[in-house]
């Protein structure tokens, strides 16, 4: 390839002249660049309604941008891919996309693109490491203020507020949310206004200001439905259901859960559906529908176990995909280089004979370099072997973790089974006694003082049984719900 590039360079210096067809090629390139921009915009706008569309269109844009060697287009495509994967909770893929985007934006010296990516990375860390999240948001804010990007500044204020809320610094969170809402209203950004009201609702709920919480959440929900923002409707209903449970508004909570689940399943968001299962458990527990609550708890344990297995599989797949991606990237670069040199090759065809001596000389030189290439290949093979050993050790550790998790799940299932058995045997006994006492009282066969004494004993027995069950259920060091001398 180096020989070929040398020939092309030499040819262009001697005999290359622009052709009249080059103007039409530029028009085609401009048209293709517009297609990349259009596809990325469509992908970004679909993020709150259908993340799958976001990923599909961003991939289309990426293919065209790579073909054109359009660096900014490649960078933006990776960034939008990262957004789509983050809404799908594919965190490993999202961070990989964002880092690729950041590399390309820096390559093209696109500060605005860099600012957007730092904001996106901050959102990924928001629920995991709030301080690292703030670090990325502040990097983005510094660039956004320097360039005067008002939309991005408003969004960053919203995200910074959320990071402070995660750190339980509610006063700072509230000040940033208000700044964000004011800016979004001035800019007429409907999505930003909805997200600001949603976050304010969550904040006021944490501050136990239920009036303002309900007002902001209901306003956010109504506007999200108007804009058909599926993701926002699903997440707002989750917060509203917790709000209604806290207010003992169980029917309203049930309606919010039912509506939210419909939108969640449209998104195929397993993480959000898992949160709805836990909220349903909380609702039935507050209603004292313990058997139904247990059902939701078991469902949550099953989904948690399945997610753990999927995450293990995803990590292994990621290691494999990294190698595949590197190979594809190198192949794409070769294709781009060949396309770039096609016109120059046509112009150089008239003087190939003149360059034959140069070709022979460079071929001989290339043979000498082959020994160095072989040495480099040997080194790379050793490196691949080392990486394989690391992957094998990682797989072994993951298998051990899965085994520990399986034992833990078996213990929890055993406790749940014993809890059900105990409800039907131990607690039913004092209840039956109470019924008998009531019958004796109805037939005037028992003195009132004696009746009250017996009722008190039954109630105390029930209370002791319930306290004992709760203590054992929440004791992770015990493999069984009851001691052996207490079991039936």
Helix- and strand-based class?
A: mainly alpha
What is the succession of H and E elements? HHHHHHHHHHHHHHHHH
Taken as a percent bin, the fraction of beta residues is under 5%
Q: What do the pLDDT scores average to?
A: 80
Q: Percent helix among the residues?
A: over 70%
Quick rundown:
By secondary structure, the chain is mainly alpha-helical.
Topology:
Layout: H1 2-15, H2 22-45, H3 51-68, H4 71-87, H5 91-107, H6 111-125, H7 130-147, H8 150-166, H9 170-187, H10 190-206, H11 210-226, H12 230-246, H13 250-267, H14 270-286, H15 290-348, H16 356-442, H17 448-473
Task: Give a verbal description of the structure.
The protein has 488 residues and is an all-alpha fold. It has a domain of 84 residues. Helix content is 85%, strand content 0%. Helix 8 runs antiparallel to helix 9. The protein is elongated, with a radius of gyration of 32 Å.
Any descriptors?
single chain; 488 residues; disordered C terminus
């Amino acid at each position: 390839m180096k020989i070929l590039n040398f020939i092309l360079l030499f040819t262009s210096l001697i005999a290359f002249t622009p052709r009249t067809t080059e103007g039409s090629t530029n028009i085609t390139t401009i048209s293709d660049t517009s297609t990349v921009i259009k596809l990325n915009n469509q992908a970004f706008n679909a993020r709150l309604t259908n993340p799958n569309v976001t990923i599909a269109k961003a991939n289309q844009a990426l293919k065209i941008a790579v073909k054109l060697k359009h660096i900014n287009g490649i960078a933006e495509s990776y960034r939008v891919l990262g957004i789509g994967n983050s809404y799908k909770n594919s965190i490993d893929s999202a961070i990989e996309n964002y880092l690729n985007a950041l590399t390309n934006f820096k390559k093209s010296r696109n500060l605005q693109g860099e600012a957007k990516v730092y904001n996106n990375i901050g959102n990924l860390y928001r629920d995991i490491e709030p301080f690292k999240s703030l670090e990325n948001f502040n990097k983005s804010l510094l660039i956004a203020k320097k360039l005067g990007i008002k939309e991005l500044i408003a969004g960053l204020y919203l995200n910074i507020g959320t990071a402070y809320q995660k750190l339980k610094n509610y006063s700072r969170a509230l000040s940033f949310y208000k700044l964000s809402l004011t800016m979004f209203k001035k800019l007429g950004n409907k999505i930003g206004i909805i997200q600001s009201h949603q976050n304010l609702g969550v904040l006021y709920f944490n501050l136990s200001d239920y009036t303002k919480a309900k007002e902001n959440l209901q306003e956010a929900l109504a506007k999200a439905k108007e804009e058909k923002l599926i993701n926002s409707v699903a997440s707002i209903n989750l917060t509203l259901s917790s709000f209604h449970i806290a207010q003992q508004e169980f029917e309203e909570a049930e309606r919010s859960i039912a509506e939210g689940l419909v939108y969640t399943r449209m998104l195929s968001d397993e993480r959000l559906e898992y949160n709805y299962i836990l909220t349903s458990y909380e609702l039935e527990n507050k209603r004292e529908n313990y058997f139904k609550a247990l059902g939701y708890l078991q469902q949550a344990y099953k989904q948690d176990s399945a997610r753990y297995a999927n995450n293990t599989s995803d990590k292994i797949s990621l290691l494999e995909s990294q190698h595949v991606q590197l190979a594809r990237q190198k192949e794409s670069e070769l294709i781009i280089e060949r396309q770039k040199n096609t016109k120059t090759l046509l112009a150089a065809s008239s003087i190939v004979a003149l360059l034959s001596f140069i070709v022979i000389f460079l071929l001989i030189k290339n043979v000498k370099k082959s020994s160095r290439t072989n040495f480099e290949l040997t080194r790379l093979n050793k490196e691949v072997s080392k990486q394989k050993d690391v992957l094998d050790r990682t797989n072994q550790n993951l298998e051990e973790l899965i085994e520990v998790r399986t034992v833990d799940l078996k213990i929890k299932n055993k406790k749940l089974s014993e809890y059900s058995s105990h409800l039907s045997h131990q607690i039913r006994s004092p209840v039956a006694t109470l019924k008998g006492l009531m019958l004796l009282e109805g037939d005037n066969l028992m003195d009132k003082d004696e009746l009250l004494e017996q009722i008190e004993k039954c109630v105390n027995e029930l209370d002791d049984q319930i306290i004992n069950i709760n203590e054992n259920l929440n004791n992770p060091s015990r493999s069984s719900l009851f001691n052996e001398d207490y079991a039936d």
